[in-house]
Amino acid sequence: MATNRTFTMIKPDGVENGHIGAILEKITASGFRIVAMKLTQMTKADAEAFYAVHNERPFFGELVEFMTRGPIVAAILEKENAVADFRTLIGATNPADAAEGTIRALYATSVGENAVHGSDSDENAAIEGAFHFAGREMF
Ligand code: UDP
C-alpha cells in the first residue's frame, strides 16, 4: 500500500449510535478518498490480533469485548499525508482531550468507546488495511 493511505474503522459505538453517515461525510469533506470500505464484524481472535500491541494493557479485555460486540465500518482512505491528517481529523484518544470539531469530540463517548480508529503510522496503515481487505477490494 502506498504511504498516502490510512486505515480506519467506525467502531461499534459509532455504528450503534447512528453516526456512520455523519462520520463518512466528515471524512470525505476533509479530502479523503475511499479506496476500500465494508460493514463487517470482528471475531475475538480478529480483535486480539488487531490490537496485539496492547495485550499487556489493563484495558485489553474490555477493548476486545467492545470491538467485537457489533458491526464496524472498515475503510482504507487516500490523501496526501493521510496518516497524520486523519489523526488530526479524529482527535485525541480520550474525547475529553479531543480538539473541538474532531470526530472523537463530536461522536465519542469515552476513552474506550471513541467512535473511530485511525492508523498511527504508514507501516501500520498497510498492515491494518491488509488485515481487513484483499487486494481486489482496494480501488
Ligand atoms: N483504549 C482504552 N483505554 C485506554 C486507552 C485506549 O480502552 O486507556 C482503547 C481505545 O478504544 C483506543 C484503543 O484502545 O482507541 C487503542 O489505543 P491507542 O492508545 O492506540 O489509541 P488510538 O491510537 O486509537 O488513539
Characterization of this structure:
With 139 residues, the chain is α+β, with helices and mostly antiparallel strands. Helices cover 40% and strands 17% of the residues. It is built from seven helices and four strands. The chain has helices at 12-16, 20-29, 44-50, 60-67, 82-90, 103-107, 122-132, and strands at residues 5-10, 33-40, 72-78, 116-118. Strands 2-3-1-4 form a four-stranded antiparallel sheet. The longest helix is centred in the C-terminal third of the chain and has 11 residues, at 122-132. It starts with a strand and ends in a 7-residue tail after the last helix. The model has no long low-confidence stretch (mean pLDDT 97). The protein binds uridine-5'-diphosphate. The site of uridine-5'-diphosphate has 8 residues, from loops. Uridine-5'-diphosphate binds next to loops.
